[in-house]
């Protein structure tokens, strides 16, 4: 059961990251690339009939890792995701997000967040999920 909850949360986080990517792509990518503590953003979207709200921020460098934190609320659950990303991981994330931004610019397609299955093949979601599933990089905890 816990595995399904984590998978579901990872997809929700992935959705919110994709939405953030679409809405303020250059700001987020540049902030992540430099681990800028001036980045903070909140937003919401609906998927599978549920309202999801998210607050994202970059906390800065800690022991050669950039700390990214996101609080996600859906179905009455508040979950805090904290990722401590090495420079190589940041480079991989930024590379995928920049490539995706270029594709989106020319495809004129909107991102479909109506169902989790619609975003699971998104390259940005895939690269984030890779790190979300690595407990040495990202951790999740319930918050009150």
List keywords for this structure.
144 residues; alpha+beta; 4 helices
Structural notes for this entry:
There is one protein chain. With 144 residues, the protein is α+β, with helices and mostly antiparallel strands. The chain is built from 4 helices and 5 strands. Strands 1-2-3-4-5 form a 5-stranded antiparallel sheet. It starts with a helix and ends with a strand. Residues 18-24 have low confidence and may be disordered.
What is the first-to-last residue Cα distance? 21 Å
The H/E string reads HEEEEHHHE
Sum up the overall morphology in one term: globular
Q: Which segments are poorly predicted (pLDDT under 50) over 5 or more consecutive residues?
A: 18-24
For the largest beta-sheet, the strand count, sense and barrel status come to: 5 strands, antiparallel
Roughly what is the average pLDDT, rounded to an integer? 80
What share of residues is helical?
A: 40-55%
What structural class is derived from the secondary structure elements? alpha+beta
Beta content comes to: 25-35%
Number of strands: 5
CA-atom Rg in angstroms: 14 Å
- Please give the order of strands in the largest beta sheet: 1-2-3-4-5
- What's the helix count? 4
């Amino acid at each position: 059961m816990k595995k399904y909850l984590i998978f579901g949360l990872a997809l929700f986080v992935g959705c919110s990251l994709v939405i953030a990517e679409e809405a303020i792509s250059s700001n987020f990518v540049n902030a992540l690339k430099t681990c800028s503590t001036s980045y903070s953003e909140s937003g919401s979207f609906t998927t599978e009939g549920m309202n999801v709200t998210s607050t994202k921020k970059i906390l800065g460098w800690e022991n050669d890792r950039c700390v990214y934190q996101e609080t996600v609320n859906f179905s009455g659950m508040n979950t805090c995701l904290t990722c401590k990303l090495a420079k190589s991981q940041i480079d991989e994330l930024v590379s995928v997000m920049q490539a995706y931004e270029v594709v989106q610019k020319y495809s004129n397609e909107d991102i479909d967040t109506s169902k989790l299955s619609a975003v699971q093949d998104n390259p940005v979601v895939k690269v984030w999920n890779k790190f979300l599933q690595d407990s040495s990089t990202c951790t999740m905890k319930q918050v009150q």
